[in-house]
Amino acid sequence: MTTLLEVKGLKTRFYTQDGVVHAVNGISYTLDEGETLGIVGESGCGKSVSVLSAMRLIPEPPGKIVGGQVLFEGEDLLKMPMDEIRHVRGNKIAMIFQDPMTSLNPVLTIGQQVSEALELHMGMSKSQARQRTIELLQMVGIPQAEERIDDYPHQFSGGMRQRVMIAMALSCNPQILIADEPTTALDVTIQAQIVDLVKRLRDEIGMAVIWITHDLGIIAGLAEKVIVMYAGFIVEMANVKDLYGDPRHPYTIGLLGSLPRLDERKSHRLVSIEGLPPDLIDLPPGCPFAPRCNYVIDRCLEENPPLETVGPNNHRIACWVDVKTAKTG
Q: At the N or C end, where does the chain have fewer CB atoms within 10 A?
């Protein structure tokens, strides 16, 4: 399978009055053609900042990408001139954002906003773009698309606005779709509909997907590969079956332990992870999860472990302790 996107050692900082925020700390991963990658972790762990950095959407200042490469079709997006990367965004790599109400322009009709990308990137005339917009709205399940194309965002429900965002993202047949917590503001029923919609369109179009979320339940039925982030670092990386069936990092074990399960014969109390994430302005010298970890040893407090392979299918963790055997690395 061909590698579509390769992120190498990506580092992003935010320079604030209180100090330097170490938001993303040298993460690396690959995305293959047609693959769905899940990026999970609690709020503030660097999930969204990592993909916004890859797309050069970090506001500068206060943000700055201070290291790494993001290779797409053999070119480093971080070194690409801004006029060139604008042709990549929305055309070859598209994004769906968390809140569709703030992502859509309230004074432009839905049709105008979807058509814009078609005219800009695909060279369509206004009439061609309008007809294609109707087809896209129908594809994402918006009823009476011919009539609703001239409606404004406030005339749509939250779920329908998110469908419009998906239509907009798919308008130019992108090779990669980045979904940044697109179901967070929606109720559970609509969440399931949006996830099913993206899965169906992914299979029809053959695009690769990066799905960012704090909800491990969504990732289980959607992704092939999962990255778990904590304090701007990748702490575990595995295919979805290995991650859920054999989690190897203490943080991942804690996250999975906090999820209710339907396959247990007896009910059991959900586990919580004690403590709080570290201050990204003042990161500890060792492993950032050490103060909250049940497996902590002295080395954890002194040295941050690198990602190392611990199982088949390139299952990798950043931990000095083998949680299966309690042996130290």
A: N
At residue 79, the pLDDT reads: 92
d(CA 303, CA 202): 41
pLDDT digits (tens, 9 = 90+) for 47-61: 999 999 999 999 888
Mean pLDDT on 221-240: 93
Residue with tokens 């559970």: 188
**Taking the CB of residue 249, how many other CB atoms lie within 10 A of it?**
28
**DSSP per-residue letters across 39-100:** EE-STTSSHHHHHHHHTT-S-TTTEEEEEEEEEETTEETTTS-HHHHHHHBTTTEEEE-S-H
Nearest-10 Cα torsion for 103, 109, 112, 113: 10
Phi and psi of 288, rounded to 5°?
-65, -20
The residue among 315, 326, 325, 160 whose CA lies nearest residue 240 is: 315
Which DSSP category does 248 fall into? -
DSSP readout, 221-243?
A: TT-SEEEEEETTEEEEEEEHHHH
- Look up residue 84 and give its amino acid: E
pTM over 0.70: yes
